[in-house]
Amino acid sequence: MSITIRSVAGADLYVAETATDVREALQKAVRIGANLVGADLVGANLARAYLAGANLAHADLARADLAGAYLVGANLVGADLAGANLAGANLAGAYLVGVNLAHADLAGANLARANLAGANLAHADLAHADLAGARGINPHRVNDLLMLRDQPGPIRAYKLVNAEFWSPIQSTGKLKFAV
Question: Which three-class secondary structure state does DSSP give residue 11?
Fold first, then answer.
């Protein structure tokens, strides 16, 4: 079966004459060093794909499944990976400058020595991700509470209580909060 990888603009980037799926076609393209800049891979199933050193700059990989993929040293500058599943992926040393990783699942991903300068990590799941030596990101700010360490001045916290300072949420074992 023949599978064509196209750019977002619709141009043919690579044709795999004997591939059975997009993952196999993409791996073949990477193996021969095909130019995959701007590839349209929205929602593609690329789980556990071997894509070391791939040039996927400005590729559209939104909602793609890259769980467990091997992307060591890959160039993903400016790529759209919004909502992508990168759980357990190996992105060590990858070039991720300006990448959109909003809502991406990076749980357990290896991002050691990756360059994340300007990357959008809004609502990305970085639980147990390896950020050792990662550039362009403060690993202490990947958790909403850790950012409090860098707050200037006094930190204000709020707690919902009733007029008598009791917690209104619990039905039993209510807590009283004193000022």
Answer: coil
Spatial distance between the Cα atoms of 106 and 1, rounded to a whole number of angstroms: 32
Burial of 179: CB neighbours in 10 Å, binned 0-12, 13-18, 19+: exposed
Q: What are phi and psi of 80, to 5 degrees?
A: -105, 110
Q: What is the pTM of this model?
A: 0.78
Task: Please list, in sequence order, all residues whose beta carbon lies within 8 angstroms of the beta carbon of residue 115, skipping any fewer than 6 positions away.
Answer: 94, 95, 96, 97, 134, 135, 136
Residue where the block lists tokens 């020595």: 113
pLDDT tens for 78-115 read 999 999 999 999 999 999 999 999 999 999 999 999 99
Amino acid letter, 45: N
Per-residue pLDDT at 92: 98
